[in-house]
């Protein structure tokens, strides 16, 4: 069945921001005397922020709000150089020109997503965007279901693209075709557990696959 809709994760898939997210999480943890390794910080990228706090700092729920405030302040102050991966802008414009509907399903908050959409001047490229702060966090498929309902597209006519197990599991939960990318958060071995159609090593390969697969 011909694909009509491509749904992208944001951080680590379209936007080269993983390093700054990790650095900001570690800064926030240090500010509140909580140990946090690089691997642990990287592993949760893709979850909603409340789920991040519950996963990384389960023993200090009273600190979650303060840690999140420190994280957000540090991230905004130090993320000026974050930008799309090479080729993402060309890929999105080409897919749009070819008639695809485009969407974003992200673990970011709505405030954070709106900020980076404005930064990349990409608001008009996407038919709909969904953030974890306004729906259930990945890997629950609610944000995908809301995107499908809005666009009027069936799951089998859409494809989810992401760099984490949370992205691919979310799509697998509603039998939506899915593609992984290896340049983001989770390893190829982890992504393969969720039976993606393919795993792209760079944006060029992803772009070609999405065009050919349609």
TrEMBL record:
Q: Which GO terms describe its molecular function?
A: phosphoglycolate phosphatase activity
Q: Which GO CC annotations does the UniProt entry carry?
A: cytosol
Cross-referenced InterPro entries: HAD-like_hydrolase_sf (IPR050155), HAD-like_sf (IPR036412), HAD-SF_hydro_IA (IPR006439), HAD_2 (IPR041492), HAD_sf (IPR023214), PGP-like_dom2 (IPR023198)
Gene3D superfamilies tied to this protein: HAD superfamily/HAD-like (3.40.50.1000), Putative phosphatase, domain 2 (1.10.150.240)
Write down the superkingdom of origin: Bacteria
Among the Pfam families in the record, one is HAD_2
Supply the NCBIfam families for this chain.
HAD-SF-IA-v1
Please list which residues make up the signal peptide: none
**Name listed for the protein in its UniProt record:** HAD hydrolase, family IA
Question: Example GO biological process term?
Answer: DNA repair
């Amino acid at each position: 069945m011909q694909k009509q809709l491509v749904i992208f994760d944001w951080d680590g898939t379209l936007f080269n921001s993983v390093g700054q997210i990790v650095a900001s999480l570690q800064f926030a943890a240090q500010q509140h005397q909580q140990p946090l390794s690089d691997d642990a910080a990287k592993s949760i990228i893709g979850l909603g922020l409340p789920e991040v706090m519950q996963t990384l700092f389960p023993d200090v729920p009273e600190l979650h709000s303060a840690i999140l405030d420190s994280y957000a302040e540090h991230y905004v102050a130090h993320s000026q150089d974050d930008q799309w991966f090479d080729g993402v802008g060309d890929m999105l414009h080409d897919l749009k020109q070819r008639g695809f509907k485009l969407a974003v399903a992200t673990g970011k908050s709505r405030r954070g997503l709106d900020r980076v959409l404005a930064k990349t001047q990409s608001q008009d490229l996407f038919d709909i965007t969904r953030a974890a702060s306004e729906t259930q966090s990945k890997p629950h498929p609610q944000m995908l279901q809301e995107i499908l309902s809005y666009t009027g597209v069936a799951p089998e006519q859409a494809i989810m693209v992401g760099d984490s197990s949370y992205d691919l599991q979310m799509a697998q939960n509603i039998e939506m075709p899915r593609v992984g990318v290896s340049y983001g958060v989770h390893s190829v071995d982890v992504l393969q557990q969720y039976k993606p159609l393919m795993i792209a090593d760079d944006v060029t390969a992803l772009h070609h696959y999405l065009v050919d697969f349609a």
